[in-house]
Amino acid sequence: MLFKMFFCKLSCIFLILLFINVCHCSQRVLRSWINPNCGEICDKKNLTTVWLRADGLNDTLHYVWDFSGSPSVLMAVTSRSAELEIKWEEYVLGKSKSLRFTETPHYTFGIVLRKIYEFNDINDTGLIDTVDASNINILHPRSFRWDRTFFSKTNELVELHMEGHDYNNAEDKISRRGKIKLLFNGFCSLNHSHITPHMLHSENSTQIDLIIDHLQTNTSFLQSRFAIEVLLVSEGNSNSTMIIDGKKTLDDEHTPGIFEVDEIRTPNNNYDNGIQKMGAYIQWKPVSYTTAERDVTSSTDLIHYPLIVSYNHTKAMKNSLLFAFYDENVTQLLVQKINVSMGLKGDRFYKKTNYTTWTFIVGYGTPPDEQFSYLVIMIISIGIGLPLLIMISTGLYLCARRFRNQDSNVLLNR
Question: Per the confidence metrics, is the pTM higher than 0.70?
């Protein structure tokens, strides 16, 4: 009887949790456009600029994913009535003030994938900061030919796949075969991404998955690895600094063997009518994968390096979406950059599989924290509750048997 009651209650709890999960409605409604109102200009130049707007109850988050220059993302928080305007003839020429919103945003944040470093790790340390300049090649993502290979949109998920190939930089006299891929995802609610390492995203974030796939390496580099330089641009006090930190988690259910999340947060030091504004963040798990299967056996490390202040804002943002947007406001911006390298000592370098990845989240507000899933909670409940129930049942049985024996002895004595 006790077992029946226990499992009945446990089933009810599980069904309630499942019902809450199913009924958790989308926090934002997504709408998106490729090259909005551009037409023939973008078709001729093979451009891809995606405008994603995520409408909430009180505000709208705008994301612009752009490949007209260096791959860039602009995030802007506005009222629900704001729209994006692009002067396409000026925009394709890389001119400033060619992209704007019809209302001044409450907050903006942007990133640029500025450089890809190929470094010859002759000492097999996995660290780019131990390598001298003669063993480093710099590739500029804007020098790839970028093609759109997939685009899908619903009210709940927007997905864009871009492929960069035929690298050719005439200035540096470098050309490479092979490709890099960038996969973008926009979300409407809190959940884990379907892309390994299954990052936890919120309705206020977008995910970028970078893949370096059979990219030709320098023939004189026998132990090549790759690193990425990312430029981070935030509104706020230009004399402050972003914060880089790591968070431990208790659960590796979604990414086996990984119990840490690294993140960069912008300072929340801007006040508007006495209310502190929220900032932005970038978040990733320190794991890279060396095969498309992305399992534990093909994992290696991601290593990040200290944040570096970028003083020449205009030069840093040149040839990117951010230059077209910020322009004269650059002196008021907090601009920093960070390098992230893929690989660790003993993993036999990039040439082992010719494949490496980095997956990260760009978001607004407070990064979400990992929590145990309902399945894990149920398993823990059974693991703790069942032995406890057995102990209680055994104790009750022994007590009842003892009382029966006592009653039997009393009757015999009479």
Answer: yes
